Amino acid sequence: RMLIAVISDTHLPRGARRLPDACLERIAAADLLLHAGDFVTVDVLRELDALGPPVAAVHGNVDTAELRRLLPAERVLGAGDARIALVHDAGARRGRLERLRRRFGDRADAVVFGHSHLPLHETGPDGFQIFNPGSPTDRRRAPTHTMGMARVEGGRVEFELVDLG
Predict the structure, then answer these.
(1) What pTM was computed for the model?
(2) For residue 105, is pLDDT > 90?
(3) Which of 33, 39, 26, 42 is nearest to 137 (CA)?
(4) Sign (positive/negative) of CA torsion 99, 104, 109, 114?
(5) Is residue 134 within 8 Å of residue 121, measured between CB atoms?
(6) 48-81 as b/e, with b when 16 or more CB fall inside 10 Å?
(7) Nearest CA to 108 among 79, 133, 85?
């Protein structure tokens, strides 16, 4: 059994913005942290790395050149006995689940993405899932700040959206 914290689009540093305490607590309690891009700077990656669990991430469209050199645009990782793909921009809403299934389906059980800042969880008829955790710091058009938690057990990934207020 594995517990994974899932965030994206932190867009830090910006003014007094910071990760909410409830987000930091969930990250610290997790076995792994997934970040689907748009950290902005390498310092943010380092700060997340210092929280404890290993960080698996991809770069986003607003990340610095230094961060883009350090992180891939996409990746697939083993998480317990499941495989999760990470990508920042999953493209247009229409047909997204099917498109990501074609892109990663033979290599992953689920895809975590960001970019839109809008939480989303969809499951296809074959059990393939896509999940966007929203943003813990920059909600934009979403009603609240959010993040995700995932539990991996028995080869299955179960996502939960966490409302951070």
Answers:
(1) 0.96
(2) no
(3) 39
(4) negative
(5) no
(6) beeeebebbbbbbeebeeebeeebeebeeeebbe
(7) 85
